[in-house]
Every structure is written in C-alpha cells, then in structure tokens.
Design a protein that fits this description.
275 residues, Rossmann fold, 7-stranded mixed beta sheet
C-alpha cells in the first residue's frame, strides 16, 4: 500500500488508498455534525483536527451531506455508549479499537484509568500519529486486524472490549469468520462490538450519490444479508435483524452468540444526545 505524504504544511492523505482514506472522509463528516447546535455527537477534538490541518476536505470529498454526517455520527455515538458502559463496569479494562483510523473516541469516552490499543494498517497509524496528539494509556499498533499478532499485545487476564467500527464489511467473509473465532479462543472473557451492513447497502454505497467530491466507499465484501453466511457452521454464530440501514452488534464471546445492541433506522435521525 502507498504511504501518506508528509509535508511542512501538515497536509495528509492525498496518497492514501480507499480504505484508509475513509478515515479522513469520516472525520470530515463527523466534525461537520459536531458543529451543529443540535448535534447527536459532541466531538470537539474532531472539529479541532479538521480546523487545524491544511487538507482540502471539501475539494477532495465535496460538500458535507447532512444526513450522511448525522448517520455516521449516530453510528459513532452507538459505539461510544457501548465503550462507556464497559468502562463503567470495568474502569481499568482494556479497549481494543480495530481499524481505529482517525477516530477521536479516546477523547470522548476515556475515564482516566482504562488502557487503549488501536490496531490499524501502517499508513493509517502513521497518519494518526502525525495528526493526533499522543494520549496517556493509548497505544497504536501498526498491524492488520486480521494479523493474529495483535492479540499478543492484549492481556487476557484483564477485562477486554474489542471494537471494529466501519471495518469488517471490507474484509472477505472467511477473514471475518477467522477473526471472530480467534478472538473467542484467545480472549474468552471479552466482548466484541462491531457494525455490519446488508448486501443492498454495498450497491448503494457505490452509487454516484455517495461519491460526491470523490468520497467513494471501498467495495464491501462482507455483509449479513445472506442466510447462508449467517448459518455457516464453521463460524461463531451471528444473528441479525433485517430491514435496518446499519446494524451495530455486540458479540458476547463466552456465549459465542450475538445480541443486537443498537439499530440505526430513519427515526434515529431525530435523536439528540443525552444531557
């Protein structure tokens, strides 16, 4: 994969391939939603990051589509709630963020005691370390989420929450299956929180209306709309509810069964953050 360029003006991302580039596009939309007075996601670090760095976001990705920005923020807020709930139960637990990109969840949710491990491709980690400040108890590891090596960096004796936001749908099904099964075997007391999309969403994501300004989503190779996939006996069983735009699911590894955590549907677009 190509490497993001460095220059004295702080621009970044122009040479990134599609999957890491989505980190910049997602950041751009998340910051736009965070600026709204009625935002569903308070994210001052994202706003600061977009304002501080000289990257041509609008020229590269086009004008922000408010509905898309709010949808992305709602998805992020769902993950934030799950991480915050975990840290309330286990204040000194470990949060592993697979495919962390430029997510600023640490600054939104950290409790001052938890350990954080971000796992992402080398070019994405390089971009993150260049654009975001170092954070106490947070470490980034340059590795693929499908590389078993990152599990060696996690203490199985600690309570662990693994998140994969906007990641698994870009992996081949067999790699998703292997990743989930590997986590279940190596971290039997952990919980895995991830989002997944139905197969029709991949077709929609490739449509011109989601490519404005070059903000093109990579092809999604793993979806949960296939009954054959969900019933595959070689994998940890997954369950899903049909008819929603994006699903956020938590996989309880000890039980090897999935529970629906959040469903983001049209009515959710009117939600407001808790006071």
């Amino acid at each position: 994969m190509s490497t993001a360029p460095s220059d004295p003006e702080g621009r970044a991302g122009s040479a990134l391939r599609p999957v890491p580039e989505t980190a910049l596009c997602t950041l751009y939309h998340r910051a736009a939603e965070a600026r709204r007075p009625d935002t569903v996601l308070r994210d001052p670090k994202a706003v600061e990051l977009v304002d501080r760095h000289d990257f041509p976001f609008e020229a590269r990705f086009g004008r922000v589509v408010p509905a898309l920005a709010r949808l992305q923020a709602l998805r992020t807020a769902a993950f934030d709630r799950e991480v915050a709930d975990f840290l309330r139960r286990d204040p000194r637990g470990t949060v592993v963020c697979l495919g962390e990109g430029l997510d600023t969840q640490y600054w939104r949710v950290d409790n001052g005691r938890a350990r954080w491990l971000g796992v992402d491709l080398p070019e994405s980690v390089e971009l993150r370390e260049r654009l975001l400040p170092a954070a106490p108890r947070h470490r980034s590891l340059a590795a693929s989420a499908t590389d078993p090596g990152w599990l060696d960096e996690v203490d199985p004796a600690q309570r662990v929450l693994i998140t994969a936001q906007g990641l698994l749908m870009y992996l081949p099904p067999e790699e998703v299956h292997a990743l989930v099964a590997r986590c279940a075997a190596r971290l039997p007391g952990a919980t895995f929180v991830f989002d997944a999309v139905p197969h029709w969403f991949n077709r929609l994501s490739q449509a011109a209306r989601l490519r404005e300004g070059g903000c093109r989503a990579p092809t999604m190779t793993w979806t949960i709309g296939s009954r054959a996939l969900l019933a595959d006996p070689r994998t940890v069983p997954l369950t899903a509810r049909h008819g929603w735009f994006i699903r956020v699911l938590a996989l309880d590894l000890p039980d090897r069964r999935a529970r629906l955590v959040r469903s983001l549907g049209p009515l959710d677009l009117r939600r407001r953050p808790a006071a």
